[in-house]
Amino acid sequence: MDGDENGPRTRGTGSVFGRKDSKNLYIAYYDLNGVQHQESAGTDIQQVAEAKLRRKLAEIEKGVPVDQSRRLRYEDIRAGLLNEYRNNGVGLIKRRGGKIPGLYYLDEYFRNMRVSSITTPVLRKFVSLLKSGELQKKIRERNPREHRAVRPMENATINRILALLRRAINIARKDGLISVVPYFPMLREENVRTGFVEPQQFRELLKHLAAHLHPLMVFLYTTGCRVGAAMKITWDMVSADCTKMFIPSELMKNREPITLALPGELVAMLKKQFRKAGARVFDTKNLRREWAKAVIAAKMPSLIIHDLRRSGARNLRSSGVAETVIMSIGGWRTASVFRRYAIVAEDDISKAMAALEQMNGTLAGND
Questions:
Q1: Bridge partners, residue 27, by sequence
Q2: What value does the mean pLDDT of the chain take?
Q3: Which of 39-48, 63-72, 192-201 has the lowest mean pLDDT?
Q4: pLDDT (tens digit per residue) in 268-299
């Protein structure tokens, strides 16, 4: 249909119409050269077809070539994402050879799909398949050698996968290949870890860990540094008296270098070690195996090494260190991500309420 109940459209605003040979509606519009284009809206719902037409007209107005936008496929924006990561030195590209977690599922579902077809309803369908485990099951059936367990996916993991695709589409938009980015139906995350280690628990844990791992553990627990970054720190980054450590930008998630003043206990540990230019500071031999044994012996079996990073953030915050300083020390890029780490314990809440009561005194008075 070229118009609606209020009359025909104004020339230049395009049209939505039906065809006898298709159950789907079609849209028609003119490009900047005056050439008319017609294509399926991929739906039989008038409002959805209208929305697609508006997006096309917006692309034309912004100068995005119609044919280029129409031909753009998932593989094109995937390549753009990987190039962006390589150009910015994102560690995942180097460590995994381009096999970024999440691309596995995006490749399976969006393979050869036109970017213009990646709409919010399509994304919701993708999310539902991951939550139910159906997409994982399909991957398993197509790959007999795949050994991953077929199970529903957690909300946080799905969000990380959606964020990858959103990043890829945004790169295409910045490159002028498309003009509109669909709404991404991110999920509420209720499976974020809240584990942290109290000082007395940490001391107990160290008792069951091999001595060569103690310097690394103290460093992680006091700075909130990522274990992956800590493992790459070399003696060239440590001052002669071991009191300071310069961590270059490539090891920091926020890509900002920092010079840390090390705690006295760690300084004493480092001074006892053999120093060799270019060699790694922290000995990580059998780290995972030793950790697994220690947490069981210390009766903290659910503890993971990354919990030391959370603990470091909370400890610094509890010590009165400003949030911006803590973010700089740990390399957190945004306040929202940092606040997922700065965990509030039950004891923190009790102390806060006690302090409030002391300040306010008796409010209602004595009856």
A1: 16, 39
A2: 82
A3: 63-72
A4: 999 999 998 899 999 999 999 999 999 999 99
C-alpha distances in Å from residue 29, one per residue of 33, 94, 186: 11, 45, 32
Q: Is residue 251 part of a domain?
A: yes
58 and 82 inside one domain:
no
DSSP code of residue 213: G
Q: What is the dihedral of CA 356, 360, 364, 367, to 10 degrees?
A: 110
Compute CA distances 209 → 159, 229, 302, 312, whole Å: 35, 20, 16, 19
Sign of the four-CA dihedral 340, 341, 347, 348? negative
Q: Give the residue-averaged pLDDT of 319-348.
A: 69
The CA distance from 61 to 65, in Å, is: 10
The parent domain of residue 107 ranges over 74-174
* Beta-carbon contacts of residue 4 (< 8 Å; ≥ 6 apart): none
* Cross-strand partners of 28: 15, 38
* Sign of the CA dihedral with 275 first, then 280, 285, and 289 last: positive
Q: Answer yes or no: are the C-beta atoms of 102 and 160 closer than 8 Å.
A: yes
Chain centre distance of CA 328 = 18
Quote the pTM value: 0.53
Residues 101 and 153 in one domain: yes
Q: Which tokens sit at 20?
A: 């006898």
* 155, part of any domain: yes
Neighbours of 367 (CB within 10 A): 3
In the 8-state DSSP scheme, what is residue 150?
-
Separation of alpha carbons 261 and 277, rounded Å: 20
Please write down the HEC assignment for all residues of 41-87.
Answer: CCCCCHHHHHHHHHHHHHHHHCCCCHHHHHHCEHHHHHHHHHHHHHH
